[in-house]
Amino acid sequence: MRHTVRRGVAALAAAGMLAGCAAEQSGGGGGTGGTGTAPGVTATTVKIGGVLTKTSASGYSTKDAELGAKARFERANAEGGVHGRTIDFLGAEDDGQDAAKGDAAAKKLVQKDQVFALVPVHAPNFGGAAFLEREGVPWFGWATGPQWCGTKTGFGYNGCLAPKPGAGSQTWWGRQLADLLGGSEGKSVYVQTSDSSGSKYGGTTISQSFTAAGFELAGVNSALPGAAPPPDWLPYVNKIMTSDDGGPPDVVVSVIAGTKFNVGLYSALKRAGYKGVLTDATSYDAAVLKDPASAQALEGVIAAPMFEPFESDAPEIARLRADVEKVAPGTTLTQHLAIGYWAADIFLDLLAKTGKELTREKFLATANGSYAYDNPGFGRIRYPKDHSEPNGCGALVKLEGGAFQVARGMKCFDNVPLK
Amino acid sequence: MIVDYVLSGLVTGAIFAIMGSGLTLSYAATGVFNFAHGAIGFLTALVFYQLNMALGLPAWLSALIAVALFAPSLGYLLHRAMFAGLAQAGETAQIVGTIGLTIALPALGLLVVDLLGLPSADATALPRGIGPHPAVGLEPLGVRLDTDQLITFAFSVVTAAGLWAFMRHTPYGLRMRASVDRRRLATLRGVDVAATSALAWTLGSGLAGLAGVLAVSVVGLDATAYTVLLFASATAAVFGRLRSIPWTFAAGLALGVVQNLVAGYTDFLEEVTGLRTAVPVILLFAGLVLLNRSRERVAGSAAEDAPPPDHLAGVPLWRRRLPWVVALAALVGFTFIGPDYYVGIAAQGLVLALIFCSFVVVTGIGGMVNLAQASFAAMAALTCGWAFASGLPFLVAILLGVLAAGAVGLLVALPALRLGGRVLTLATLALALLADQVLFQVDAFSNGTIGWSLPALGFGFADTSDARVRVVLLLVLIGVVGLLVKNLEKSASGRAILAVRSAPAAAVTSGLSAPRTKILLFVLASAIAGLGGVLYAISKGSITATDLPASAGFVWLAVVVLQGVRRIGGAVLGGLIAVVFPELLATWDVSAHVGAILFGAGGMILAKHPDGVLSQLAESRHRRRTRRAEPAPQERSVSPEHQEPLADSEHPVRRDPRVAVGRRGGGTADEPRELFRLENVVAGYADCTVLRGVDLVVRPGEAVALLGANGAGKSTACAVAAGDLPATAGRVLLDGADITAWPAYRRARAGVLLAPEGRGVFPGLTVEENLRTWLPDPAQVYERLPRLAERRAVPAGALSGGEQQLLTLAPALVRPPRVLIADEPSLGLAPLVVQQVFELFAELRERGVALLLVEEKATEALRIADRVAFMRLGRVTWTGPRAEVDGDRLTAAYLGAT
């Protein structure tokens, strides 16, 4: 028996050898050759498709980004396209928040549907990054994950939001809030994250944003289970309420994914008598107002969107509203919709700046060669710089009396190196 | 502060407790561990939400309908469609079937929501609970709680009390506990085990639904969150040893307290990401290792997983291989001419196929169910990425990855020695979750959320960035693994493994080392999964901690088992299907939910055909052939023509039982009518026929002794008589009516009672409860047998052998059956007790009971027998009055001379 198994192990090892034989020949790279016309490009059209997390087991969905991108592309097409080419928008694939499915979706769009670029890509667990980078296919969307950062092909509409240590990290949230509260001096902030390395990382960058703005850090807690909200908030609330020398902090920042976590945390905090400022990045969502309990829990919360709020009277926002209204009348504007819209907007700007001759190589050369574009809708974008750091812009809205109000308009601040 | 944490932790634990007790209830009563328990909770919560939101019903009414109507009906429906079949299928099929449901049920709910345009179950918000909305804060006993929490706690108290009363003080509860204790014996006592199972599923599902609705205001309408809830409840159930509902309940409450204390007092653990989240999982693992050593099985073997017959055995080798060779040629041809995209898909399918091969080794050959295979793959890929990034040559990094997976496999296999069956499966589940939640969260190992990037693998002339190269490489690797598997199966070690799997005890006595074999298999499978994981990463170009989540492993197992886990072909087919199927759905623009539902429906197929699609194909081919070759073989075997008519009874018109009843029922002849008859009965186990045409008659008030040597078929005859074993041909008649098709419980209720070989008691039930399984009121037994009265509260397992045999027969004294079949009633008893037992028989005979006594030792039985039947080699060789039995006949019967 031992003999056979040993033979088996030897065979397996041999297989490993075979696999590794003459290994490491290629260092990846490659990409498609620069032959004349680019895939998905004709004299009159450019073919585009996206990858979104439309469905997921947890119910999280970014599907509105499809509508946002569509609205922006429709306007471009109505204006006669870019260099005579209209956008042939195939819509977006669904990755189901599954890395493998995202990879398959990217391959399908590039190899089967022959798209020129991927717009919008908005999937927290997107798995197609390595493939797109290898093939030299540009992709535009919301760069929340590290797979975007440091690539040549991945373009976050507001830069890379997962910078490596040493690269620039945002300070706008802390500074905007300091401005809103009339200064940060003597004010303490408590950062609540959940127990996963992604959330902890968010805790680090955001704590830094607030300390850079002059707040005093009362604590960072990552005890919250990541997968589902805890049935009982008592231990977490107790920690917060005693974090600032035995008393509650002035500001609580929640870096936990999803409104349902925030609703739970905020209700529990308010019940415990917390009177300070609550702020997070995800509560700016008209859908939460529909439910009385969520609306009650979120009342007074200061949300931090990374685009100009829909309540703003900037002309760019008026145009966004009009564009969306044209494509889908009566749509409620959401964060994901804005992300799809602005990602498409940057792509179109780049398309125009690339010129009439369109190949992926030329497009990427334009994008990665000191590209700069300012727009009050999302602030500014600079490439290649923003491949490795966020654009540093954001706004604040406050939920007051059951309605969102602009607390601080879109503004950009300098980044500081991430510790 | 600590008191606050404990009190409010109890409230949290209430949900675990309710869900856990449902899990324990259904597992204990049916033997199926329901991984879909959380999914049922989710679906019930979804129904609650929709009733409330879409139909506008008040919350309490919505909850009532969802919990009291929907969830139990769902449980009953699933019992009919699936669980009833799964209970008979092997353990692998059970696990896979319920995992399929975990995926299919939420998808079904969400699809219906989509199709009907109902308010979307938005997981980003928290739906309302049963109580006022928003919940009102209260401070009972100084603990800050809200109305939802109070309602939850109140329900848990009511549930606990209700369950206790139901299980202890109702006949349904008694029957359920009897079936849990000794399933077979319960049917012999007239308990309809199928109905009991249905009840258990209905009730268990109701409890899942209740927990689901109570949890919805806390975790939201999120299927994943409900799966997390299931794991926590499984921990509680494991601490209840998967048998005891009270202990499960207590463990659930305790788990809530522990979670609160961990959250409140363990800031020093903060550095280790995920450790605190993983507390229930760690407890699950500890509970499994410490509390749940399997008593019946060793080394993770599932004894009932005997391999199916090889229906292609008669087919020439070339013909067996032909379809595979053709398919392979087609695949290779396609690889070189097909479009890039589809070749890429094929390559991806083959990567999965390689990983799936590891299931063939560990599950197909080894009979162990491993839910952690995705973690092994991720382990190897991350190790490889880490090693490569630290500057090691790529080849070394790959080998290191494979070795790492093997090493972890060894670590898992070691505790597996002490665990068996489902416990091992749950342990691998705990391990998979632990890897996801803790190990892969270690930044140094997984490089944070960024992961590692890996280069393509080059061969000088080509590299793996080309999908064609990947296809060829993978085909070669799968071929190597296939040879390995073939080798394993054919070799001495392979046979040893099969021996360990089919009959662990026998294997041990034959000097085979089960543990070592198991470890080798486990390690080998882990290494294969590791190799697959590395190739997964290479073909993707990168690997992150979330690329191969634990849940992927569950789905994989299901896909492979659906195709057939015993052969490499099943793994390859599974791999290709796993990638082609979603592609087809996307092309046809079908909702992804439909795919998930179809996948779950696979579980129902599995309930009927536990060996998967491939084996099913071979079997139906075999059936077709046989049908063509031998027209109507069944008719031949059921032919009632008797070659050897019974010596002592005239033959009625056999073909019409009603005529027979008429004659017998109104019989006024001197000879008493016959009450119970086996008529030309043929029966056996699987391929082995034991009874070859047994005829036997017992009349009321008559004792018939059935004698014969060991192996003559006496116990089998008893089993057929009681309905415990189906007859393949012939009839069983009770009072002239054909009861051949009746299940055991129905025969028992009609008065055919079998006291089985060994002791016919429920060891886990008290003496009193044992008696109540047959008697509404045991008082009369106590009058007759004061010894039992003294010990009425003692579990029957604690009685002496003699007391147990008395307990077995005592109920018959008070409520005499019409026919009493006693299989080896004197076995292992002291002579004095034997005498007492036979006095009981004599008394029963006086009272008109038809007695069939089966004995190997003839003396005692002969003393009270009126007639004697000798059995030899599956036939009754002689029947006659006791007076005609002499030494010669006895010798002839036992020694086989005729």
Automatic annotation (TrEMBL), chain A:
Gene3D superfamilies: 3.40.50.2300. SUPFAM superfamilies: Periplasmic binding protein-like I (SSF53822). Pfam families: Peripla_BP_6. Residues 45-402 form the Leucine-binding protein domain. Keywords: Signal. The keyword Signal applies. Residues 1-22 form the signal peptide. PROSITE patterns: PROKAR_LIPOPROTEIN (PS51257). This is Leucine-binding protein domain-containing protein. It comes from Nonomuraea glycinis.
Automatic annotation (TrEMBL), chain B:
Gene3D superfamilies: P-loop containing nucleotide triphosphate hydrolases. The chain crosses the membrane at residues 6-25, 32-51, 57-78, 99-118, 150-167, 188-217, 223-240, 247-266, 272-291, 322-339, 345-362, 394-416, 467-485, 519-538, 544-562, 569-588. Residues 676-898 form the ABC transporter domain. Pfam families: ABC_tran, BPD_transp_2. Residues 638-658 have a biased composition (Basic and acidic residues). One of its GO terms (biological process) is L-amino acid transport. Residues 619-667 are annotated as: Disordered. Belongs to the ABC transporter superfamily. This is ABC transporter. It comes from Nonomuraea glycinis.
